[in-house]
Design a protein that fits this description.
Helix content is 58%, strand content 20%. The protein is α+β, with helices and mostly antiparallel strands and 76 residues long. It has a single domain, classed as Winged helix-like DNA-binding domain superfamily/Winged helix DNA-binding domain (Arc Repressor Mutant, subunit A, Orthogonal Bundle). The radius of gyration is 18 Å and the shape is flat.
């Protein structure tokens, strides 16, 4: 997966775990992200403008439930 890292990223060894790799943004990558975040925020805000407060909370709650279940399964 990291063999095809997009431009603006840096891949190097993880000092905590030699088996792992660390993926970090370069200055160029951070600049791209800084331009992308406002666009992402605007577009997602428009897509979810009609959602109720509860509908906005449900995806986060369900994602937390999914992650908690995945973590429990991995520990078993």
């Amino acid at each position: 997966m990291t063999a095809k890292a997009p431009p603006g990223t840096w891949i190097g060894p993880d000092p905590q775990d030699r088996r792992a790799r660390v993926l970090s943004l370069t200055d160029a990558g951070r600049a791209v992200l800084a331009r992308a975040v406002p666009i992402w925020t605007r577009e997602h805000g428009a897509m979810m403008a009609e959602w109720s407060d509860q509908e906005l909370k449900d995806p986060a709650r369900l994602l937390r439930k999914f992650v908690d279940g995945a973590n429990a399964a991995l520990k078993a």
